[in-house]
Amino acid sequence: AIAISSLLFAFAHPDPRYAVLLIPLSVWIGWVSWRTNSLVPAMWCHFANNLVGAAFGFAVARSGLHPAQV
Q1: For a FRET experiment, which of 27, 28, 32, 57 has its CA 20 to 30 Å from that of 7?
Q2: Greater confidence, 67 or 36?
Q3: Of 46, 41, 44, 56, the residue nearest 26 (C-alpha)
Q4: pLDDT, mean of residues 20-39
Q5: Using an 8 Å Cβ cutoff, are 68 and 44 in contact?
Q6: One-letter-per-residue 3-state SS of the chain
Q7: What is the pLDDT of residues 2-23, one digit of tens each?
Q8: Pairwise CA distance, residues 11 & 65, whole Å
Q9: How far apart are CA 48 and CA 13, in angstroms?
Q10: How many whole angstroms separate alpha carbon 46 and alpha carbon 7?
Q11: Could you tell me which residue, 67 or 6, shows the higher pLDDT?
């Protein structure tokens, strides 16, 4: 069940290249949900992942460097 829901979660994102990178994250979030028997910790993991990604994107945008230039 975790594997199937992880694949569905990952490939629900628009960019397939990005979705492949989400598979390990979605397996981890599925495991957290299963282990704690609650969706709340999994939601916090998802929030933390989005926060880190947004902060990194904001930092790169503020630096004036484009990732393709690095």
Answers
A1: 57
A2: 36
A3: 46
A4: 90
A5: no
A6: CHHHHHHHHHHCCCCHHHHHHHHHHHHHHHHHHHHHCCCHHHHHHHHHHHHHHHHHHHHHHHHCCCHHHC
A7: 888 888 888 887 777 777 888 8
A8: 29
A9: 17
A10: 15
A11: 6
